[in-house]
Design goal:
CATH architecture: 3-Layer(aba) Sandwich
CATH topology: Pyruvate Kinase, Chain: A, domain 1
Number of helices: 5
Radius of gyration: 28 Å
Oligomer: single chain
Largest sheet: 5 strands, mixed
Strand order of the largest sheet: 3-2-1-4-5
Distance between the termini: 30 Å
């Protein structure tokens, strides 16, 4: 009897957990639909704007007239900044572990002093690993306005233009579909035409042709310097904003998938525990019948 009571308590506990994971799955699914809708609306614009940035970088390398500090590679890279976009909460599978591993891989690649700018609370685990975190920003579950990322963009641009950093990267998770998310590391500054996989939200053969193959001519009014001063920072804002949208869609998709798998696991566990409960109960009934039969036989004798 004690064994059946213990199994019964476990069934109730797992059933309660199943209700929680199912509710979290439904909430994540609702947020995912909003995030996917937002990311798909802006993805084409973000990709075309980045293509424009790459073409301007190509123009800057070919003409001294159209130079800009955000488009010119520095002769020596002394310090690097990585903007890491993670989640505020867990329960989303390997989402955070994958993007953090991607960011740390950059340290092994360039072997340079690196500062991390963290977006989302889960990225602070890097501090426990001995990484240098210079700033931490809040992250919204649903990004509704590009103005929410302006403090990040302002800090990155000021630190780069002041010479504090010679290269700025962004580590985010690219949304492919609800069951597939790809962690990526993209160079934001300086803008370079050597990165063919520099398009946000574009996977594999879907990427547009590299800007180096294009033969376009730009005419600037009132002057190249004034136009580039206004245009290049705005285009970089679009790229970082799109990275936020991609990361949000990927996060909610990963959480929905993780909670769906947890709900399925809880369902299987309840079925297994119910089977054990029934077997234990039947064994108890059989033992009681055997005891009654033995007692009746003893009285009969």
């Amino acid at each position: 009897m004690a064994k059946t009571k213990e199994i019964s308590r476990r069934i109730k506990s797992v059933s309660s957990t199943k209700k929680i994971t199912k509710a979290m799955e439904m909430v994540a699914a609702a947020k995912m639909r909003k995030a996917i809708d937002a990311v798909l609306k802006t993805r084409t614009y973000a990709n075309l704007s980045w293509e424009t940035v790459l073409r301007l970088a190509q123009l800057a390398t070919a003409s001294e007239e159209a130079t800009h500090p955000l488009l010119q590679a520095r002769p020596e890279i002394k310090r690097v900044a990585v903007v890491l976009i993670s989640s505020n909460r867990g329960m989303c599978g390997a989402y955070n572990a994958a993007v953090i591993a991607k960011a740390e891989h950059s340290l092994q690649t360039h072997q340079l002093p690196t500062d991390f700018i963290i977006i989302g609370k889960k990225g602070t685990i890097l501090q426990q690993r001995g990484r240098n975190i210079t700033a931490e920003f809040e992250k919204s579950d649903i990004l509704t306005d590009a103005q929410e990322i302006y403090p990040v963009v302002k800090m990155v641009l000021e630190d780069y233009l002041s010479g504090k950093y010679d290269k700025v990267l962004v580590a985010y998770t690219d949304f492919v579909n609800p069951v597939k998310q790809v962690p990526r590391l993209k160079q934001l500054l300086p803008v370079t035409i050597e990165k063919t996989e520099a398009y946000l939200g574009v996977i594999g053969d879907a990427a547009p042709a590299p800007a180096a193959e294009a033969a376009l001519e730009y005419k600037f009014e009132p002057s190249p310097a004034v136009v580039l001063d206004m245009m290049v920072p705005r285009l970089l804002e679009v790229q970082l904003y799109q990275a936020f949208l991609e990361a949000n869609a990927a996060e909610h998709s990963a959480r929905m998938t993780a909670m769906h798998q947890a709900t399925d696991a809880a369902t299987d566990m309840v079925a297994e525990l119910t089977l054990f409960y029934n077997k234990a109960r039947q064994a108890g009934i059989t033992a009681e019948i055997a005891e009654i039969s033995a007692g009746a036989n003893a009285l009969a004798e």
